[in-house]
């Protein structure tokens, strides 16, 4: 029986539950095992404790043999490879951003000075570019807690990853789903990362059956942009990719944004090598002043 390590939140267990079901469908037995993290215990803001606390404990548990499989949101993993682990990317969910607003409103319909919850600099910068009048408020907690701030009148709207809403059955709560070129998502958003110990050939063979090569390569191109810009996953950097099945061509788009919404740098590249695509985008962005823009954020 494979032990799948996961955080205890509803979103994390739902994501890990999908992986469990896929592993069972692939012919192995699996069950979930909850791993506590510092972020679960102290509920401190991600900006202070760092998103890495949510992945480090899972990786430590995996390396120590306390679980056999670890499931992460791919966008939260460090971009540098960890040679201890074998990583698989299954079929990706919708990578777009979603607005959940009171009274069914979309972004244009929100009143002047509307209170919108998000703590992600990437989202903050792009929202302010579209609506400089918005009152952006910090947001913390699970999906239910975040959406509850609208119901209790604390906020007029929140912005969340559409994939998380879909995985938890809340997609109908979205009052607007932004096109990827309107509010660009985080690199690898919507993708799960399934890790196992690299030296465990039997388990590697099991999880390899979950691989989606297209989704892996598209997410990799996006994460190369983040890596080459030397930016963390909370930096105002965004990327998304599309795949043309008839030609096998990946087209990736990257963006870097001023936190106040006053400036953005965009770049696009296409090809079949995800690493080369991501490097071309990052080189273009750096040539256009991305390092200076990130330094100001």
TrEMBL record:
Domain Porphobilinogen deaminase N-terminal: from-to ranges: 2-203
Record's GO cellular component terms: cytoplasm
Subunit: Monomer.
TM spans (from-to): none
Protein's recorded name: Porphobilinogen deaminase
Family recorded in the similarity comment: Belongs to the HMBS family.
Biological function: Tetrapolymerization of the monopyrrole PBG into the hydroxymethylbilane pre-uroporphyrinogen in several discrete steps.
Gene3D superfamilies, sorted: Periplasmic binding protein-like II (3.40.190.10), Porphobilinogen deaminase, C-terminal domain (3.30.160.40)
Cofactor: dipyrromethane
Sorted UniProt keywords: Porphyrin biosynthesis, Transferase
Taxonomic lineage of the native organism: Bacteria, Bacillati, Actinomycetota, Actinomycetes, Mycobacteriales
Modified residues (S-(dipyrrolylmethanemethyl)cysteine): 233
Any further remark recorded for this protein: The porphobilinogen subunits are added to the dipyrromethane group.
Occurrences of domain Porphobilinogen deaminase C-terminal (ranges): 218-286
One of the GO BP terms on file: protoporphyrinogen IX biosynthetic process
Coiled-coil parts of chain: none
Domain of life: Bacteria
Entries under Pfam families matching the protein: Porphobil_deam, Porphobil_deamC
Reaction(s) catalysed (UniProt annotation): 4 porphobilinogen + H2O = hydroxymethylbilane + 4 NH4(+)
Protein's UniProt keywords contain Nucleotide-binding: no
Free-text cofactor note: Binds 1 dipyrromethane group covalently.
InterPro entries: HemC (IPR000860), Porphobilin_deaminase_cofac_BS (IPR022419), Porphobilin_deaminase_N (IPR022417), Porphobilinogen_deaminase_C (IPR022418), Porphobilinogen_deaminase_C_sf (IPR036803)
EC numbers: 2.5.1.61
Species annotation: Corynebacterium propinquum
Gene Ontology molecular function: hydroxymethylbilane synthase activity
């Amino acid at each position: 029986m494979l032990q799948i390590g996961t955080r205890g939140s509803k979103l994390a267990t739902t994501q890990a539950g999908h992986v469990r079901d896929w592993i069972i469908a692939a012919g192995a037995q699996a069950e979930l095992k909850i791993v506590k993290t510092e972020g679960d215990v102290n509920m401190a803001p991600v900006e202070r404790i760092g998103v890495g606390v949510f992945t480090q404990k899972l990786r430590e548990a995996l390396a120590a043999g306390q679980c056999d499989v670890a499931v992460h949101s791919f966008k939260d993993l460090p971009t540098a490879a960890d040679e201890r682990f074998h990583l698989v990317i299954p079929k990706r969910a919708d990578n777009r951003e979603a607005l959940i607003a009171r009274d069914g409103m979309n972004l244009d319909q929100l009143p002047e000075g509307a209170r919108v919850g998000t703590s992600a600099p990437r989202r903050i910068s792009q929202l302010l570019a579209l609506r400089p009048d918005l009152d952006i408020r910090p947001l913390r907690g699970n999906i239910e807690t975040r959406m509850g701030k609208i119901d209790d009148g604390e906020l007029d709207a929140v912005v969340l990853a559409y994939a998380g809403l879909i995985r938890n059955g809340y997609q109908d709560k979205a009052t607007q789903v932004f096109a990827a070129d309107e509010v660009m998502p985080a690199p690898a958003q919507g993708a799960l990362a399934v890790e196992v110990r690299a030296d465990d050939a039997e388990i590697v063979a099991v999880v390899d059956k979950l691989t989606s090569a297209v989704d892996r390569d598209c997410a990799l191109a996006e994460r190369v942009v983040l890596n080459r810009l030397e930016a963390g996953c909370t930096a105002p950097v965004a990327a998304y990719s599309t795949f043309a099945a008839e030609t096998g061509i990946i087209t990736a788009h990257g963006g870097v944004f001023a936190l106040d919404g006053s400036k953005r740098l965009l770049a696009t590249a296409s090809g079949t090598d995800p690493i080369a695509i991501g490097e071309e985008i990052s080189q273009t962005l750096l040539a256009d002043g991305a390092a200076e823009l990130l330094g100001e954020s």
